[in-house]
Amino acid sequence: MEETIKQDKSKSHKEFEKLLSQDWGNRKFKEGEITTGIVSQVGKKFIFLDLGLKSEGAIPIEEFRLTKEIDKIEIGSKIEVLLEKIENKTGNVVVSREKARKAHSWKKMEKAFENKEKIKGVIISKCKGGFIVDVESCLCFLPGSQIDLKPLKNFDHLMKVPLTFECVKLDKKRGNIVLSRRAILEKILLRDRDKIISKLKEGDIVNGTIKNLTEWGAFVDLNGVDALLHITDISWRRINKPADLLSIGQSIKAKIIKIEEGTKKISLGVKQLTEDPYKKVIDSYEVGKNYPAIITNVQDYGCFAKLEEGLEGLIHQSELSWTKKNIHPGKVLSTSQKIQVQILEKDMEKRRLSLSYKNTLVNPWVKFIENHKVGNEAEGVIKNITDYGLFVSVKNSELDGMIHYRDLNWSEKDSELEKYKKNQLVKFKILEINKEKEKIRLGIKQLTQDPFEFFMNKKISDVVTAIVVSSSKDGIHVYAGNKDLLLLIKRNQLAKEPENQRPSRFARGDKCDCMIVELDKEKRKVTLSIKDLEEKQTKEVVKKYGSTDSGALLGEILGPLLKKKRNKKKE
Asked: Where do the domains of the chain lie?
């Protein structure tokens, strides 16, 4: 009997070995791939697997206890493992059950990423910039911005509980997987939002709750759907910010004024629930007439004024003052100030009312033209000095005029500007008044006679008497006709003979006759010459007395002329 049992066992063992060898013979082992092993022994610390190789693989029993597989493990059980080494330094097979499970998880993650499928996971810990999520033993990264639809201060309720995620990034080379819980929530919200929006239409009156306030409007919650209430649709009257009329958590009634076809964005209006006061009262106001108003708001570009409740208009910066062009509106008018305004324009379509403040005031240009004429003399205070002239506030007037540097002195030199200072009182003559261009041109030099006027009735070849002021190496400086007009007679124009062309021959106060050889009245330029005058006189003498080679005869003829010249010099 015993012998029969031994024979049966031997037979069964041989059949097992035969089947095992056939199974291993059909396999091709490769490191880094998943293979199946058969449990050959369950020890206290390790579970041994027969892979059909030279040695068995050993896996720590703790790996099976953590995954709660230990109760299912028995001799002959088939287990998938990752073959890390067919043979290590000691000749043993190296396998890993954990890495096999991770490899399976990675394949599932790749499939989920390609098909945009939902995956289940557990947030196990927090890290820099986000969280670590365990998806079937595969560790993934969840950015902090992707955990919820809005920033959260407390994450405890989401830790170590099963959650649904979407794989948004997968890098096989680096082994990185990025998840998003927000993408799942957005899809759920979008699906619910579409259901809610499908029941809404433009023109509906809805109830909502103020969710958030910004400078340009408010976000309203319509039973799970966000809608925008723009600042211009809160009230018919102008407001500085939505917080002036609304607060977070406030329940409001509004009208749906628009639902965008593509984005499904909803725009609300509160003021649309009441009649437009603009259309109700605007007909009682006429363009060109003055009305009382109160300043409600001051901006960089102008001031808003209220004519009555619900009716406001803009006084543009250019309509605030006749004279102050670039001044800030706040320096002309202030909030709550009561004023008179004139209606310039009514735009019914745009609900725009253009007002003027300056038109209700006396135009200083009209007053100036009544009291001042071109050619009148006046005085004023210098307000500003520039490279090209002076700006002067005309006395007993609200207007300013300009004195160009060429109108400071008849010499027309810009260096004359250095003689003047701000707040200095100056006298001037009014040269031009242009109301259309709002321009007043003034002049100081026009208070005195034009020194060039002496030459206005002269012509080239005329002879004038000049008075020597000084001499230099270039020639002599003389006055001709007026002491304010200093002229230079060049050295080569002082005498006919070269030896007499010395400037030192002339002393201060000497009088000398000279001829005008160049005269440009427009450019106010004149050139004098003593040499040309002598040559002219010589030609006239020769023409009168004839040609002669005798020096004595020539001296006898020119003697009286030279004597006359000397007498003039003495005078």
From this structure: 23-114, 116-186, 200-273, 282-358, 364-447, 451-570
> Residue holding tokens 């001044």?
327
**Alpha-carbon gap, residue 410 to 407, rounded angstroms:** 7
Q: How many residues would you count in the chain?
A: 571
How is 147-167 classified by DSSP, letter by letter?
Answer: SSSS--S--GGGBTSEEEEEE
Domains 282-358 and 451-570 are alike in CATH topology: yes
Contacts of residue 21, defined as CB under 8 A and 6 or more positions apart, other chains included, come to: 52
Q: Copy the structure tokens of residue 142.
A: 């969840």
Level-2 CATH architecture, domain 364-447:
Beta Barrel (2.40)
451-570 CATH fold: OB fold (Dihydrolipoamide Acetyltransferase, E2P) (2.40.50)
pLDDT at 254: 92
Radius of gyration of the chain (CA): 54
Residue 93 is classified by DSSP as B
Nearest to 495 by CA among 464, 539, 541, 530: 530
Nearest to 99 by CA among 80, 72, 74, 124: 80
Question: Which strands make up the sheet holding 463-472, listed edge to edge?
Answer: 482-490, 475-480, 463-472, 511-520, 525-529
pLDDT digits (tens, 9 = 90+) for 247-305: 998 999 999 898 887 777 889 999 888 887 777 778 888 899 999 999 998 999 999 99
CA angle (87, 91, 97) in 5-degree steps: 50
Pinpoint the alpha helices (H) of 174-291.
182-197, 277-281
How, if at all, do strands 266-269 and 225-230 pair?
Answer: parallel
In the DSSP assignment, the letter for residue 336 is T
Q: What is the H or E stretch that residue 340 is in?
A: strand 338-347
- Determine phi and psi for 155, rounding to 5 degrees: -115, 5
Rounded distance between C-alpha atoms, residue 148 and residue 129, angstroms = 14
476: how many CB neighbours lie within 10 A of its CB? 28
Chosen CATH of 200-273 out of 3.40.50.970, 2.40.50.140, 2.60.120.890, 2.30.110.10? 2.40.50.140
Q: How far apart are CA 430 and CA 376, in angstroms?
A: 6
Cβ–Cβ < 8 Å for 502, 489: no
Alpha carbons 162 and 133: distance in angstroms, whole number: 10
CA distances from 125 to 118, 131, 132, 141 (A): 21, 6, 5, 10
Element of type H or E holding 101: helix 97-115
**CA 295 to each of CA 234, 300, 308: distance values in angstroms, whole numbers, following the listed order:** 21, 14, 11
The string of DSSP letters for 362-423 reads --HHHHHHHH--TT-EEEEEEEEEETTEEEEEETTSS-EEEEEGGGT-TT--GGGGGG--TT
Q: Three-class SS of residue 268?
A: strand
Report residue 569: phi and psi, to 5°. Answer: -65, -40
pTM of the model: 0.44
pLDDT tens per residue, range 94-152: 777 767 777 777 777 888 888 888 888 899 888 888 998 888 767 789 998 888 888 88
The CA–CA distances, whole Å, from 323 to 319, 326, 361, 369, 441 equal 10, 9, 12, 15, 16
